[in-house]
Amino acid sequence: MANLKAFFDAATNTVTYLVWDPSTRAAAVIDPILDFDPNGARLGTASADAVIAAAAELDLRIDWILDTHAHADHLSGADYLRRQTGAKIGIGAHITHVQKAFLPLFGAAPDHPDGHVFDLLLKDGDTLPLGQLMIRVLHTPGHTPACVTYLIDDMAFVGDTLFMPDYGTARADFPGGDSATLYRSIRKILALPPETRIFVGHDYLPAGRDHFLWETTVAEERARNVHIHDGVSEDDFVALRDARDRTLAAPRLILPSLQVNIRAGALPPAEADGQVYLKLPVNRLGSV
After folding, report:
1. Could you give the CA distance from residue 93 to residue 269 in angstroms, rounded to a whole number?
2. Annotation: CATH topology of 3-251
3. What digits encode the pLDDT tens for the residues 235-257?
4. Is the overall model pTM greater than 0.85, yes or no?
5. How many helices (H) and strands (E) are present in the chain, helices listed first?
């Protein structure tokens, strides 16, 4: 059975996972982050370095860096980890649709929406070896067209598609997102064996809970998820999800995050003055 260590980032409510095969020490990192202070536009690597340090302490070899999707609420640490460890970066193959939508927003004409900045573009049903274990890829779009779930032993790493049962589900109003598609993807996840452990990509504190959680099960989600428990029809879910999404503001870090994350966590190239810039296109976000 695979072993796991979780790292919770309070600044973005993000959970990064280090998963490994105890017999071979082969490891994967799922949804790593870069630290980013938007007030001073300062980047840091403390969160990613903590994962690297834990892997070293546990005598692990990081083979894979896996993003569940192009996150809109934190900067991916994938490229930094790749440079530090030599591991390969994987993401859902439909990342090209996300790149096509967002690259022009940042004036990134020299870049191409072909996914080449990632090492692996993963499709539904693809597998990756993790020592003597196997990582299986389940395409679960709806939040974004590129969302995937990673299945390892009895664990499902669902990214933003599902949250803890008392918080619900992902928004579906980003470009390429769709609430009906999200419903069907979640039903694919909830068709897994009931004892399957679900590890979410974020946790927030809903009313009535005073501590962060990131592990649940298929059975718990089917019984108690406030948006999509058993008995909620697709029509009911779409109506609820779409109404809720109309009330939501854009994520605070969506603009710096996406221009980095569609590049596998790499910063944009330096401009003529040698400086790297993260751009804030004015009055453009609603046009993509």
Report:
1. 23
2. Metallo-beta-lactamase; Chain A (3.60.15)
3. 999 999 999 999 999 999 999 99
4. yes
5. 7, 15
